[in-house]
Design a protein that fits this description.
The protein is mostly helical and 75 residues long. It is 51% helix and 11% strand. Strands 1-2 form a two-stranded antiparallel sheet. A hairpin with a 2-residue loop joins β1 and β2. α2 packs antiparallel against α3. The longest helix has 16 residues.
């Protein structure tokens, strides 16, 4: 199948998902695969709050979260 690059990673195209046997319209499938910027910004805020619970956290985790936030903000 095919994939499209999004701020949260590669996502399949709706046309490449096998929906045989499912009662789902293409427009609904497209909606399910959308990246909701506001929702992801809320999730990033929640993750930041969670990270504060730890005295030591690998820098890579902080860096990845910051990079995600930058990608979402630019989206």
């Amino acid at each position: 199948g095919h994939a499209v690059k999004t701020p949260i990673g590669y996502m399949p195209t709706p046309e490449d998902i096998d929906t045989r046997g499912l009662d789902i319209k293409l427009e609904n499938l497209k909606k399910l695969l959308e990246v909701d910027k506001d929702m992801w910004l809320q999730e990033i805020t929640s993750i930041k709050q969670y990270f504060q619970k730890f005295d030591r956290l690998p820098q890579e985790m902080k860096d990845q979260l910051k990079a995600l936030e930058q990608r979402i903000m630019a989206y």
